[in-house]
């Protein structure tokens, strides 16, 4: 029996309009059982689809850090670029200028107010992290355990837990609006949460490779880690 996902893919073709009408009628006749089979993909399925089909992404983001008492202790915003394999760029514009760039081999962090650059091997920096979820392929899911899926406010959520016992965080939840990631919630082992809200998301938009090349600003101190 074809899955609901396969049916949706086939029915998007123009020559399947008549078959779609027949299927709708069948769903009405079958009632509850058919409705369950045709339900939208859950958060896990959307995450898997995102990892399989997305080669690049552009977005704006707003980030909030919430402590264990549910108080917002930090707010920031900026822009995000990613391009597979293993490249991303986060430009924090407010309240402080920070740039985080993965060029496929190294991870660069530039903090303008400190005039300081930190660079480390990308594999050491990512591991089982939310950034790895966005920039990796579907095999990255082998490093996580699914905790739960749910829907709310037109978003499909999936919550994952890292399999590594020494991970820096206890869970990450990802929400999708359609096929686009809309929100991530990262919780550390002390109960602090980081909420990342994505807007103006463009999937598979052209992204120049030059965006992931980092040049050390004049006068900045460089701290090298991980044997670099």
Task: Walk me through this protein's architecture.
- The relative contact order is 0.17.
- The protein has two domains: 34 residues; 143 residues, outer membrane lipoprotein receptor (LolB), chain A (Clam).
- The N terminus is likely disordered.
- With 228 residues, it is of the alpha+beta class.
- It is 22% helix and 43% strand.
- The chain contains six helices and twelve strands.
- A hairpin with a 3-residue loop joins strand 3 and strand 4.
- Strands 7-8-9-10-11-1-2-3-4-5-6-12 form a twelve-stranded mixed β-sheet.
- The termini are far apart.
Question: What features would you highlight for this structure?
Answer:
228 residues; alpha+beta; outer membrane lipoprotein receptor (LolB), chain A; 2 domains; 12-stranded mixed sheet; 6 helices; disordered N terminus
Q: Report how far apart the termini are.
A: 53 Å
- Looking at CATH, which topology of the largest domain would you report? outer membrane lipoprotein receptor (LolB), chain A
- Percentage of residues in DSSP E strands: 35-45%
* Biggest pleated-sheet summary: 12 strands, mixed
What is the number of beta strands?
12
In order across it, which strands form the biggest sheet? 7-8-9-10-11-1-2-3-4-5-6-12
The low-confidence parts are: 1-39
The count of domains is: 2
CATH architecture of the largest domain: Clam
Radius of gyration using CA atoms only: 20 Å
Average pLDDT across residues?
A: 78
Briefly, what CATH class of the largest domain? Mainly Beta
CATH homology superfamily name of the largest domain? Lipoprotein localisation LolA/LolB/LppX
Helix content bin: 10-25%
